[in-house]
Amino acid sequence: MAVIRKKLFYKIGDVCKLCSIQPHVLRYWETEFTLLSPAKNRAGQRIYREKDLQLVQAIKQLLYQEGYTISGANKKLLDDGKSDLPLFKQSFKADQGPALSEIQKELEEILKILD
Fold first, then answer.
1. CA torsion angle for 42, 45, 50, 53 (degrees, to 10)?
2. pLDDT digits (tens, 9 = 90+) for 16-28
3. What is the distance between the alpha carbons of residues 112 and 89, in angstroms, rounded to a whole number?
4. CA angle centred on 65, ends 62 and 70, rounded to 5°
5. What is 12-90's CATH topology?
6. Taking the mean position of all CA atoms in its chain, how far away is CA 67?
7. CB 60 within 8 A of CB 22
8. Structural domain boundaries of the chain?
9. Which region among 48-52, 65-69, 95-99 has the lowest average model confidence (pLDDT)?
10. What integer pLDDT is reported at residue 90 of this predicted model?
11. Taking the CB of residue 9, how many other CB atoms lie within 10 A of it?
């Protein structure tokens, strides 16, 4: 996995570099995996969050390393919390407050830029 500074949002090119896949593969996976549904910005560009990156890595692992078919991988990902993938093991930490403050500051900066 390539090294890119941890950000709140990633563009499709960043995700492809980080996950070592081609953009057309990622766009295809978005049509096949209902869980992979990145938001779009005002310009219509896909914006991916950290959880989307984790999901892309999980999909890649299931398809390429574990040999699942697309439908099999989709079923495994949709399985109600029985997945052993770290993506679905959510734990809430006490240090999320500072992260939310950082997100708010970055969003305010974006709004200033857009105005």
1. 160
2. 999 999 999 999 9
3. 36
4. 35
5. Multidrug-efflux Transporter Regulator; Chain: A; Domain 2 (1.10.1660)
6. 21
7. no
8. 12-90
9. 95-99
10. 41
11. 17
Nearest-angstrom CA–CA distance, 1 and 70: 22
Helix (H, G, I), strand (E, B) or coil at 81: coil
Mean of per-residue pLDDT scores for the chain: 81
Question: Which sign, positive or negative, has the C-alpha torsion 77, 81, 83, 89?
Answer: positive
- If one counts every other C-beta atom within 10 angstroms of the C-beta of residue 59, the result is 27
Q: Is 62 exposed, middle or buried (0-12, 13-18, 19+ CB in 10 A)?
A: buried
Alpha-carbon gap, residue 100 to 52, rounded angstroms:
18
Read out DSSP for 91-102?
A: ---TTHHHHHHH
Q: Mean pLDDT, to the nearest integer, of 50-62?
A: 92
Distances 6 to 37, 67, 79, 100, 105 between C-alpha atoms, Å: 20, 29, 29, 15, 16
Please state the rounded mean pLDDT for residues 23-47. 93
Q: Phi and psi of 4, rounded to 5°?
A: -135, 140
Name residues whose C-beta falls within 8 Å of residue 104's C-beta, 6 or more positions apart in sequence. none
